[in-house]
Amino acid sequence: MRRLLLFFFVIVNFQLAIGQVWLLPSEKTQCVIPFEIINNLIVVSVKLNAEPLTFILDNGVKETLLFGEVDSLRLKNTSAFTFQGFGIGKPISGLMSRHNRLEIGSAVDTSHHLYVITDTAFNLSKNIGVHIHGILGSAFFRTNGVAIDYIKKKIVIARNVDDLGINIAKYTAYPISIENDRAYSIVDFVTPKNTYTQQKLLLDLGNSDPMMLFAPELENYTIAKPYIRDYLGFGFNGAVFGLKNRISKLIIGDYTIPLPIVSYPDTNSYDRERIVKGRVGSIGNQILSRFYVILDYTNGTVYLRTNRNFKKPYTLDMSGLEIVHSGFEFVRHRVTNFVERGNEGGTTINFSTEVNYLIELHASYVIDQVRPNSPAENVGIKVGDKLTKINGRKVGKMKLQDIKNKLQAGEDKLVKIEIERENKKMVVEFRLEDPLSLAKE
Question: Whole-angstrom Cα distance, residue 63 to residue 204?
Answer without folding.
Answer: 14
